[in-house]
Design goal:
Protein name: Mediator of RNA polymerase II transcription subunit 14
Helix content: 25-40%
Organism: Cyberlindnera jadinii (strain ATCC 18201 / CBS 1600 / BCRC 20928 / JCM 3617 / NBRC 0987 / NRRL Y-1542)
Number of strands: 32
Subcellular location: Nucleus
Structural class: alpha+beta
Number of helices: 19
Largest sheet: 6 strands, antiparallel
Radius of gyration: 67 Å
Shape: elongated
Strand content: 15-25%
Keywords: Activator, Nucleus, Transcription, Transcription regulation
GO biological process, one term: regulation of transcription by RNA polymerase II
Amino acid sequence: MPTREDMDVQTKHSEPPELQHITTNIVPLSSILDKFAQFAYAELSHVLKMQPNDDDKKKKLLDLLVYLRTQFTRLYVLTNWSHASAHDFNKFIDLLAWLREQSSHFGNLIWSTKSLNQSLLSAKLPNPDLITAMEVLSNGRPTLPTHNFIETRISPQKVLQTLRDLNVVLSMKYALVDDLPEEFTDYDIKDGRIYVYTKDYQFQISALDESTPFFMIDFELSFGKFEKAKNLIRVCNEALRSFQFVNLKRILTNYTMAMKLYLIHQKLNELKTVKHTYSPEKFQITVHYWVNSFVFKYSRLEIGLNKNNEIIYRWFKQGQLAQTFEQVDHIDMFLRDIYHKHSTSILSQIEDLMVNKSLLQINELTGIFYFKNPTPALNMALKKLNVDDFKNINENLQAIRTDLKFTEISSVLSVTGWIPNDLIKLPQVELSKLYNGVRQEPHRLVRFYTRKEWAQNWFLIFVIDTKIRTFIGNIRSVLGQWTLNAPSEVCINSFDYKSSKDVINQVSKKIMTHLISQELTGTNYHVVSHDSIVVETESFVKIPNASKVVMLMFRIDPTNKNNIVVNLKGKLNKIITLDDFIVDSNGVFQIFETIDFKRANILTNIMSKLTKLAKVIELVDYLQKRDMELVSVQLDQVVFKYGDNVCTLKENFDLELPKENPHNICLSSIRRFLVTNGVDDVFKYLMKSNVLISKLNDMSNQAQVDNVSSWNVDKLRYEIISKNATYFSVLYYSNKFKPRHGFSMNIEIKNGALDSFVYLISIDKEDLDANLKRELTSQGNLFKNRASTIKYLVPLSDGIVCDDSGLNYVLDQLHSMVLDIYNVG
C-alpha cells in the first residue's frame, strides 16, 4: 500500500487534465473571408446595374470601393494576426471558459452550504435548562404549567384582598409617573385596573405588581363604535413598557383623529354634490364643491389638524383662504351653510343684479348663475357669465345689458328704414379716431348703419363695449383699405319706436352740419346748435348795408325725408323792396332752399342768391343815388328808367332794352361797353347819349323810308352803323361809287367838361365836295347860321365838335347837304 509521501510524489509528476476545447459561437476565419468576398461581388454587381446615370453610378461605386477597401484591410490585419497568435488565443478562450465554470461551481457550493445550515436548525440541541434540572434534583419533579386544566380553589376573600392590594399598587404607581399628560388626569382605579377618561376616548391599563410596566387592557372611542385596530393595543403596550405616556397620548390622539376624519370621509361619500380627496397619511380631507362651475372651480374646504391636534375646517373661496372653523357638528349642514355664505358674498360683489327686469341669482348647490324670469336671450348670455373669470362679472353683466339694449335698438333700426352694412372692416387705427386719441378702448363689437336718403358714405356707427356709444362718420374704401373721416359722437339717450324719428332728425342734422362746415372752409363761422350755424358775411358773402353775420338753419323736409330745408336768415340795415325777395319791415330777409340730401353742394344756390342780393343792393343803392326811377327790382334783374326810356339790367350784367328804347340801335355795343367799363360808365352813357341815340333812331327810320322811295339804282342810299357804343356812322352808298360802299359820316362821342358828352362829326370821303368840306369849317353856313340856343359848336380841320344843344342841327344840315350833293334820284 503506497504511503502518503508516495502519493504526493506521484501527484507532483502527473500531468494536469486537458482543458475542454470551446467551439460554440466561434466562426472560422475562412468562412468570414468567403462570405465577405461574396458580399463584395454582389454589391459591385448591384451598383453597376441599378444606378440611373453615369455620375450617380461613379459616386456610388467610389463610395462602395472605399468601404470594401476598409473592410479588406481589417481582414488582412486579422489574417496576419491569426498566423502568429491564433493558437495561443484559442487556449485563452478555453481557459476563460474553464474559469467561469469553476466560479459557477463555487457559487453553487456556497448556496448548498447555506441551505444545509438552514435545514439543520431543527436538529440543533437546546441550551441546557438548569432551572428545571434543579427542580427535578430537589423536588423529584419539575413545575410545569397547567394551562387551566387544574382548577385552583381561591376564596372570594383572597380575590378581593388581592384586588385591593393591586388597586393600591396601581394608584401609587400611576401617581409616580413623571410625564403623565394632562389629558390622562381624569381616571378611576377599580377592579385592579386604571380607567382613564378623555373627551374623545377612554382606555384601561393595569400592571402585575409594582415592578412590572403598565399594559393596556381595553380601548374605546366615545363618538362611535368601531372595530378595534389589530395592532393598536400592541403599539400602545410598547409605549407603556418604557413608561412613555406622551407617546401613548400621541398614538391614541392620532388614532382618534384618524377615525374622526374617516367618519367625515364616510359622510362625504353619501353626498352627491361634492368631490373630496381623503389622505389618511396626511390627516387631511379636501372637499371640492361647485365642481361643475368653471368660475368657482377652485373653491374648496380643507379638513385637517391644527398644531394642537384638533380638527379644523379651512374654507377657500376661489383659491383664497376665507375663514377657519373649529367646531362642526354636521358636515352636510355645514356645507349648506358654506354654500349660502359663498353665494351671498358673490352676489354682494355684483354692482347691479338686474338685467332687463330679470334678477341674477346663483344656485347654491352647483355654483352656476341663473336668471329669475329669464328670456331666451338672457339664457344664451348666461354661458359667458359661467365660463369667464369672476372679476369680470360686472363688465360681463354690463355687456349683456348692452347686447340686449342693442338687440332692441337693432329691431327698431330694422323697421325704421336703417340699412346695415356688414362689409365695412375698419382697422384699429381708424377705430381709434372715435376716441379722439384720448381713450383707446378695445372695442368688442362695431356696427354700421346708413339711410337711403343720406349723402353717400355717411354712416351711423355703434361701438358696443360695456356701453353703447354712437358716432357718425364718413367711411370710404381706398384701394381696399377702409378709412374713417370726420368722426363725431352723437348723444342718443333713448332709441325706441317713439323716439326713432327724433334720432333720424338729430343724426341727419349732424351730417348736414358737417357737410355745411366743409363748404364753409375758409370762412369764419360758429356752430350754435345741431341745426344752426352763424356765419360772418365778411368771409362768406359780403352784403352791403347788412348785418355782419347771417344764421344758417336746416331741418328735414317733413313732406319728403329725402330733402333738407335750409334757411338762411339775415338783416339789412337799409330796407329795400324786391319783387321776388321778401324783406320785412325790420329789414330781416330769409332764403329758403330745399335740397336733396345726397347733393354734394348744399350752399351753392344760397350763396348764388346772396351774391345776387349783394349785387342788387349795391345796384339799387347806386341807382337811387343818381335819382333813377326804379320800375322793378328782382334778384336777377333791375328795371329802371333813365329819362323816358326803360332799361333792364339782368344777372351777370346782361343788359336788355324794350323794343321802343332807342338804344337798341347799339345794344350789342353797349353790352360790350358794360363788360369793359362797368355799370357806372354804362349808366352815365345811357343818360348822356340819349339825344344822339334818339337822333340816330330817327335817321334810321327815315332811311328805311327814303331807301325804298325810288327804284333808281344810282340813288344815294344810307343807313346807320354802330361800330361801338361811342362811335357811329351814317353810311352812304350808291352804284356810282367805286367801290360800292361809298363814304361815311362819323359821329364819335367824347368826354366834355363837367361830366358831359361832346360829339366829333366828320366825313371820311377823300374827294369830299368843296362846299361840303367848307361847311365843316368856320366859313361855312353851318357855323355862321347856328341858332342862339346852341351853346357849343367848334369847327376843326377834319370835322366839327358840338354838344347836345347843336347835335340835331349839325346832323340835319350835313345829312341834307350830302343828299343834295350826291343824290342823283
